[in-house]
Design brief:
Blueprint lengths: L1 E7 L20 H14 L8 E8 L7 H14 L2 E11 L6 H10 L3 E7 L3 H7 L5 H14 L4 E7 L6 H13 L4 E6 L7 H7 L8 H17 L3 E4 L2 E3 L6 H7 L4 E4 L4 E3 L3 E5 L3 H9 L5 E5 L2 H12 L6 E2 H8 L1 H16 L3 E3 L3 E4 L7 H6 L7
């Protein structure tokens, strides 16, 4: 099985923290759509298995017209073999998610929505420079449910200045009351080339408080654990059997094709990424050339990525899987590194290997880096 990711590189306005590729020049959406349809034709041979998941991300996919989404979907079905029951996710901003749009998306074939709530607190939305209001956040969920969507995910951002623990608890309570089955919770990160980074450098904005972030991460974990949710990946929580299939496939190393400017693709042995420039993307596609760079993934890199991803998942890593994929030398290396982490309680034994303890989850990436196979 494989997946397809469509990157929609447009937004109404720039959120202060965002470092994803996007443009606010939405007058180019039609030109983008035409280029994307051609790229689908050019990339039809990249995957050689059935498509199990389709994900429209961005940027802001909910800016696309019904006709654009339908034409992209039709073109994909013409050139790829979709599994009978596949997950079709579309990311939507609350200010776009009208009752009519929700009904249109469902009619096209979208069966899962990911709504960028981020917060129900007005001061937090203003601080992030989000385009929607608290009232629109509430209404977007109501519109999605009324249209017939039951598979809904929402995003929350924690660790922002002025977001109190009480604010965060209220956000979680609101989502639980709406019976949302999936929540993605992301710690605020400060990326270079963002407005937030510039403001912190100029000292016009407070720096990130890592102790606040760790505390609020634990608050989220404890709150959702108490109601029986699965903390199945560091940033993702779901009711039982409501995990994101598309993102889970990423974390399980399933091949995927990325289409659109800045989109990444992966086929186990290599990774490639399209140019992060809309106009250059348009020009190249018109010339029937996919503007992508490619890097091979040698075994040490594959191993490092396996450990990084595995330690973010609730299942952790498997010694048998490491041995089968990478060899006995890598298995022994992993056992050696794991021993002191297990001794001090950061790793918990599973039937096949180790997973992170609850206390260590917030430090997953740092712990994973200790296992990395360094180049000779």
């Amino acid at each position: 099985m494989s997946g397809i990711y469509i990157h929609i590189p447009f937004c109404k306005k720039a959120c202060h923290y965002c470092n994803f590729h996007f443009s606010t020049q939405t007058q180019y959406i039609d030109e983008f759509t035409s280029a994307l349809l051609l790229e689908i034709e050019l990339q039809e041979k990249y995957l050689d298995s059935k498509i199990e998941t389709l994900y429209f991300g961005g940027g802001t996919p909910s800016l696309l017209s019904k006709q654009a989404i339908q034409s992209i979907y039709n073109k994909l079905k013409d050139h790829f073999d979709f599994a009978p029951a596949f997950e079709f996710t579309l990311e939507a901003n609350p200010d776009d998610l009208s009752a009519q749009k929700a009904a249109d998306w469902l009619n096209i074939g979208v069966n899962r929505l990911s709504i960028g709530i981020q917060s129900f607190q007005s001061h937090s939305l203003a601080w992030m420079n989000r385009a929607h209001t608290t009232a629109q956040a509430h209404q977007s969920i109501k519109n999605a449910k009324a249209a017939g969507f039951s598979n809904i995910s929402t995003d929350l951002i924690y660790g922002t200045p002025h977001l109190t623990d009480q604010d965060l608890s209220k956000d979680l309570e609101i989502l639980l009351n709406y019976e949302i089955p999936h929540i993605s919770c992301y710690a605020l990160t400060v990326e270079e080339k963002t407005a937030l980074y510039a403001m912190i450098q100029k000292k016009t904005m407070e720096a990130v408080d890592t102790s606040q972030q760790a505390r609020q991460f634990n608050l989220i974990v404890d709150s959702l654990d108490q109601v029986g949710w699965e903390h199945y990946e560091i940033s993702n929580f779901s009711k039982p059997n409501q995990r994101s299939q598309h993102n889970s496939n990423y974390w399980n190393g399933v091949p995927y094709l990325g289409l659109g400017p800045a989109a990444h693709s992966y086929n186990i042995h290599s990774r490639q990424w399209n140019i992060a420039n809309n106009q250059l993307y348009f020009q190249s596609i018109k010339n029937k050339t996919v503007p992508a760079e490619m890097e091979p993934l040698p075994i040490p890199t594959q191993f490092n990525e396996y450990l990084m991803i595995s330690l973010r998942k609730i299942e952790g890593f498997s010694f048998e899987e490491i041995k089968n994929k990478f060899g006995e030398t890598y298995e022994n290396h992993t056992k050696t590194i794991a021993t002191p982490f297990a001794a001090d309680g950061k790793l918990i034994a599973t039937p096949t290997g180790y997973t992170l303890s609850k206390e260590a989850r917030f430090f997953a990436d740092g712990i994973a880096s200790e296992f990395f196979w360094l180049a000779d």
